[in-house]
Design a protein that fits this description.
The chain contains seven helices and seven strands, in the order αββααβααβαββαβ. With 191 residues, it is an alpha/beta fold. Strands 1, 2, 3, 6 and 7 form a five-stranded parallel β-sheet that branches. The chain has a two-stranded antiparallel ribbon with strand order 4-5. The two termini are 14 Å apart.
């Protein structure tokens, strides 16, 4: 496995911060992923996300757990990236929440799925072309209710990270609510 940027987890030639992380002021403490977003993993995520194949969540969570066991990051609670209510009604479920629920069973870490909310309905990140568009698309889209995550190390769960903009926007809301650290754990990373 090639060296990774310690912040965004992207493969690179050294274990130093990548140029993108040096120039950005991200709130997320780091992003980790066991897979690149291609091939069989891409197909599995699409089956889970768009084809209602919810039974895949258990297997995919096993892979996340195996990765987390070998590559530990700080985390006391699992928090899934939330969907806006409109998208949740359209899809019928949140794939990130399914992954977090299954991972919760394996790690024994508590699941907190009702604090982080997506307040603004935005176009899917997959429809944005640039990192700047992705960041703008999710800026201020999330908020955190209550104080249950105050002083906690949060492990933020999602299916895919492309630019990391969604994870960073979530991390900002979580830290504003008092989380001490926020690490993103995703199944796959676009490179």
């Amino acid at each position: 496995m090639p060296p990774l940027c310690p912040k965004c987890g992207q493969p690179q030639s050294s274990a130093m911060l990548c140029p993108s992380c040096v120039s950005s002021q991200a709130e997320i403490d780091g992003i980790r992923s066991p897979f690149q977003f291609d091939g069989v993993i891409r197909q599995a995520i699409h089956q889970l996300k768009y084809r209602n194949l919810r039974a895949l969540a258990g297997l995919l969570a096993c892979w996340l757990n195996d990765y987390l066991t070998s590559n530990p990051v700080p985390g006391e609670v699992l928090v899934p990236v939330p969907l806006h209510q409109k998208r949740l009604r359209e899809r019928g479920y949140n794939q990130s929440r399914l992954l977090a629920q299954e991972l919760c069973k394996l790690t024994k870490l508590p699941l907190v799925a009702d604090c982080l909310i997506r307040e603004h309905h935005t176009p899917p990140q997959a429809r944005t072309a640039t990192v700047a568009e992705r960041r703008s698309n999710v800026a201020n889209a999330f908020s955190c209710r209550g104080h249950r995550l105050q002083g906690k190390q949060v492990l933020l769960i999602d299916d895919v990270a492309t630019s990391g903009a969604t994870l960073d926007a979530c991390a900002r809301a979580l830290k504003e609510a008092g989380a001490t650290s926020v690490w993103g754990l995703v199944l796959a990373r676009e490179t």
